[in-house]
Amino acid sequence: MILLSFDIEEFDMPFEYGLSLSWEEQIRISSEGCRKILNCLSRHEVKATFFCTARFAENAPELIREIGESGHEIASHGYEHSAFEEAHLKRSKDFLETLTGQRVEGFRMPRMANVSDAALFEAGYRYNSSLNPTYLPGRYNHWHEPRTWFWQNGLLQLPASTTPNIRFPLFWLSFHHLPGALYRRLALRTYKHDGYLLTYFHPWEFMPIQQIKGLPYTVTHNAGNNAEVRLDKLIGFFRKRKVPFGTFREFIETLPVIS
């Protein structure tokens, strides 16, 4: 199964590079990027999982409702993207459930940072998808963590996919920087080896953020229309091979139940 996921948040990336962007622009960029994603998923008739910050959802409630009503899974990405308290775990979950009428079972920490399994369990989550089991300089070193799904502390852990053996990450940065055909081959190889593929993107990647002066090439390369084309080709590549797509919730139902 192909598990596409999207982290929907206020577009605060510019602040990491000493830039400023109005709150209205942060919401607009992510909202319009999300529309592009939804259109692509609809064309291919595939479902995905959307990890939303509650703050973004407060400012774009109709969009978040539409995502849920379209059959996609809503999960939590915290209350806000650049600040975290453990109390936000339940607060964001409750808000998203009230907004969408959908049970929120999953969580992903912003920037794939560490989060307490005990706190997630207490807040009522079923799974945690906050692990990228590779080495990313300046961010994290999870080289020795399990590479595929595993149970830990009463929670199902769903790491982002990396290639077998060398653990090359198949996340949004490699999606933008590798030649598209190479990325798709690596994704297919990983899918065949693991039985599933889990990757993640952000709505702002599908917007022309090259226009924001000061953002680095690593972030802006192939953003906007090129990202739309790449996502369309990636989905079509697997659809042509009759590989199923699904939400995290649907994938979990295929896994063995622990006693």
UniProtKB/TrEMBL annotation:
The UniProt record lists the NodB homology domain at 31-117
- Bilayer-crossing regions: none
Gene Ontology terms describing biological process: carbohydrate metabolic process
Enumerate the Gene3D superfamilies for this protein: Glycoside hydrolase/deacetylase
Q: Which GO terms describe its molecular function?
A: hydrolase activity, acting on carbon-nitrogen (but not peptide) bonds
InterPro entries cross-referenced by the UniProt entry = Glyco_hydro/deAcase_b/a-brl (IPR011330), NODB_dom (IPR002509), PuuE_HpPgdA-like (IPR045235)
Stated name of the protein: DUF3473 domain-containing protein
Q: Provide the species name.
A: Tannerella forsythia (Bacteroides forsythus)
